Amino acid sequence: MIPRYALLRRVLHWIVAVLVIGMIPGGLIFTEFDNRDAIEGLFGAGSFNRFYDLHKSVGVVVLALMAARVGAMLVWPAPARTPPLSPPVRLAATVSHAALYVLLIVTPLLGWAGVSAFRAPIPVFGFFEMPPIAPQDRELSRWLLDLHSACAFAIAALVTIHVAAAFWHRNVREDTVFYRIGFGRRRPTPGE
After folding, report:
1. What residues pair up with 124 in beta bridges, in sequence order?
2. What's the CATH number where 136 sits?
3. What angle do CA 167, 11, 184 make, to 5 degrees?
4. Rounded distance, CA 44 to CA 72, Å?
5. Tens digit of pLDDT for each residue in 138-173?
6. Is residue 26 one of the residues assigned to a domain?
7. pLDDT given at position 151
8. Does 189 map to a domain?
9. What average pLDDT score do residues 76-94 get?
10. Assessment of whether the complete model's pTM goes beyond 0.85
11. What is the distance between the alpha carbons of residues 48 and 35, in angstroms, rounded to a whole number?
């Protein structure tokens, strides 16, 4: 029997993973204002703002889901690793997971603050708007959004490493690490 994360932790992990993987290219394409004419030429008038609003809405959802993930982590600790990881691998996993958690909270907060400082609306799927959390200041907005972008690139790099490490555990080490966060059954190892 594979020790698995609690069901809620697994569900939150995969929802955030899908949203973040979708947000990265969307953020690169739709929040670069130089792309406005190309986007609207391809998708129609007003599409740039709709995509940008979608990016902001999903960012709010990611922030809320990360708060839920932190709460779930406190309630349901990680299952034991069987077999245990070597100290260097355990350290790399701990540092990369902590960095991802921090960045997945800080990055949406920076986006929220940057858009707030610009005094643009932050609609959440048309249901409501997030209140501003920063004083109106265009220079501050530019600085915060540049930092938001830098953090997004860091997330992209860490996600790439995270996915590569998951497949390394699955295909090279053939241990149970990959399966602790999944829903399927573990592939039998040689000799099973």
Report:
1. 128
2. 1.20.950.20
3. 50
4. 42
5. 999 999 999 999 999 999 999 999 999 888 887 887
6. yes
7. 95
8. no
9. 85
10. yes
11. 8
